[in-house]
Amino acid sequence: MVAKSILLFGLSAIAEIGGVWLVWQGIREHRGWLWIAVGLVALGCYGVLASAQPDSHFGRVLAAYGGVFVAGSLVWGMVLDGFRPDRWDVVGALLCLTGVAVIMYAPRG
Questions:
Q1: Where would one find coiled-coil regions in this protein (predicted)?
Q2: Contacts of residue 63, Cβ cutoff 8 Å, sequence gap at least 6
Q3: pLDDT tens digits for range 63-96
Q4: Which site in 6, 51, 66, 107 is 20 to 30 Å from 14, CA atoms measured?
Q5: Which positions ≥6 away from 80 have C-beta within 8 Å?
Q6: Do residues 93 and 44 touch, judged by C-beta distance below 8 A?
């Protein structure tokens, strides 16, 4: 279950961050409506992937995903936009991922 959840978080991050990036490119970089449309489809895929998480609590899944989004956005920026995070960006992302682990995978009674 944990492996499935981690895979879904990764795919969700690609779909959501990629979708927002495509919309951003379409609007801010004047790449056109096709980029925006593909971005909107990717965002829809994110919603489907997020709802496939094994945990049935919407609030828990979305709260934990927030940490994945933070770390994934920094990685996306590094790979596609040449962004170079400073040590505080890295520390913040690691804190967020620690929060993901606690929220999603801590033993519950």
A1: none
A2: 103
A3: 999 999 999 999 999 999 999 999 999 999 999 9
A4: 107
A5: 21
A6: no
